[in-house]
Design brief:
Layout (H helix, E strand, L loop, with lengths): L1 H25 L1 E5 L8 E5 L2 E3 L19 E7 L4 H21 L6 E8 L7 E5 L1 E6 L5 E5 H4 L6 E3 L6 E6 L4 E2 L11 E2 H12 L21 E3 L14 E3 L2 E5 L5 E3 L6 H8 L9 E2 L2 H9 L3 H11 L6 E4 L8 E4 L38 H8 L11 H10 L17 E3 L23 H8 L7 E2 L1
Parallel strand pairs: 4-5, 5-10, 8-15, 11-12
Antiparallel strand pairs: 1-2, 1-7, 3-9, 6-10, 7-8, 13-15, 14-17, 14-21, 16-18, 18-19, 19-20
Helix pairs in contact: 1-10, 2-4
């Protein structure tokens, strides 16, 4: 009897090892190939690896160069060496500004390109990779790699060689530090770069209206089963196995200002689509048709209506410097624009200390001009306002005590009736909260939570 029990125990251990090994090998992340088009993305294997050495910031020995926690790879496709140097210098300056405000403990790899682009697009930056983590409320969310690295996990999904991708249009009449006085038609390059790099740190919602159709009138987070959108890198006739809707880390903290409902609760309701039924679809089109005939579709339609109404969505931070207020996000754009709506601070704060992360940038104004117009006193680090700091800190980027003394008390912060439950603490508060790395969560992965599975 004891021998049988002993053998069974070893068999269970062996089976568990095989299960966990298969999960480690099959874990997939999303790589974004083009920061100008976040729909240009692919699934990549990112098996768990062990870091033997983690490069950290030494706050006690900061030379000028080490003050910049952004490791820049710069590509300039111009024959104008002077212009290339100005652009490169701006990226370096933006890295130093962010490093002076954020207590980044692990260097961030930035691959930036400055080249001629068609049209009037200024440029963009975003995560090169997003990584699935099981959050402390049990939900799996996608974390920008630049943010995930700050958790300093000894065992983690394999990282891409670069954390943030940036691409900017050299045809735009940019103004650079040291140029003659800025002209009305010129755009301050430093402010633009700071803004875009902040998106690359994870300041980005997943709620959008183009996962199933072009510019539809309903919103969902990422759809587990659809990697690229209709018309991109995936055939619309591919068999699709749906396993739920996957939020970005940013989405965990969004609330409806009308009743303080967390939007993640709406995601949970959306996840009831086809609950208990076959979740295999012959195509994306079939999924779209079935979803539109479901009760959950009404939630997606209502979310669209909400997100084109001003002052309707807030970001509920868990930091002390804004006293539990919700930062109002951009919902005044109609029709909804993915990547613009929700992923910025309310445009009404354009001339406030949080001008940086509003949707539009005014030409004819330098970074210093914008800081002065906001009424802030100090150096360029004041470009990153208290609401922006609160959002980044809540996501998991910790700050020095002196980073901001301002409070969020204007009409664009809404007092929350209650803070998140004690069991909903910020993921970054302890690496132990990344429960995707414990055995229990790994076994859960096997039984129906494998991300973005498409059978071709």
């Amino acid at each position: 009897m004891k021998k049988i029990s002993f053998t069974a125990t070893y068999f269970f251990i062996y089976l568990s090892f095989i299960i966990i090994t298969k999960i480690y090998a099959s874990l997939q992340c999303i790589d974004y190939l083009n920061p100008l088009n976040l729909r240009d993305k692919i699934l990549v294997p990112c098996p768990h690896v062990r870091s033997n050495k983690i490069e950290v910031r030494d706050n006690n020995n900061l030379e000028d160069e080490s003050k910049n926690m952004f490791d820049l790879t710069f590509n300039c496709n111009l024959n104008d060496e002077k212009m290339c140097k100005k652009a490169k210098s701006t990226f370096e300056s933006a890295g130093r500004i962010l490093s002076s405000v954020l207590s980044l403990n692990t260097k961030i790899g930035l691959n930036a390109t400055f080249r001629p682009l068609e049209g009037n697009l200024l440029g963009a930056a975003g995560p090169s990779r997003t990584i699935p983590f099981r959050d402390d409320d049990g939900k799996i969310r996608l974390y920008a790699q630049s943010l995930a690295k700050q958790f300093q996990l000894e065992v983690h999904p394999e990282y891409s060689s670069v954390d943030i991708l940036a691409d900017f249009n050299s045809n735009i009449p940019f103004w650079f530090e040291g140029d003659p006085p800025i002209q009305p038609n010129q755009t301050g390059f430093e402010e633009l770069v700071l803004h875009e790099l902040t998106h690359g740190l994870g300041f980005l919602s997943s709620w959008s209206n183009d996962y199933l159709e072009e510019s539809s009138s309903f919103l969902t987070p990422n759809i587990d089963g659809i990697v690229s959108n209709v018309g991109d890198n995936i055939e619309s006739k591919s068999i699709l196995i749906f396993r739920g809707f996957i939020e970005n880390a940013f989405d965990k903290y969004m609330i409806l200002t009308s009743n303080r409902t967390h939007t993640t609760e709406l995601t949970s309701e959306l996840d009831k689509f086809r609950d208990g039924q076959d979740r295999k679809f012959t195509s994306i089109n079939e999924f779209n048709e079935k979803f539109k005939s479901s009760p959950q579709f009404n939630i997606a339609k209502q979310m669209y209506k909400t997100c084109i109404k001003s002052n309707s969505i807030g970001f509920l931070s868990n930091t002390s410097n804004i006293n539990n207020n919700a930062v109002i996000l951009e919902t005044g754009i109609n029709p909804f624009r993915g990547g613009a709506s929700l992923s910025h601070i309310d445009e009404k704060l354009f001339n406030s200390s949080d001008f940086l992360m509003t949707f539009e940038q005014l030409p004819g104004r330098t970074l210093e001009d914008s800081i002065n117009a906001s009424g802030s006193k100090g150096g360029k680090e004041k470009a990153i306002g208290p609401r922006t700091l609160a959002i980044l800190e809540t996501l998991g980027l910790i700050f020095p005590q002196s980073s901001s003394t301002e409070s969020c008390s204007s009409s664009h912060c809404t007092k929350a009736n209650s803070s998140p439950d004690s069991n909903m603490d910020d993921l970054s508060s302890s690496s132990n909260n990344l429960s995707v790395f414990n055995m229990a969560s790994m076994v859960i992965f096997i039984f129906g939570v494998s991300l973005f599975n498409v059978v071709m």
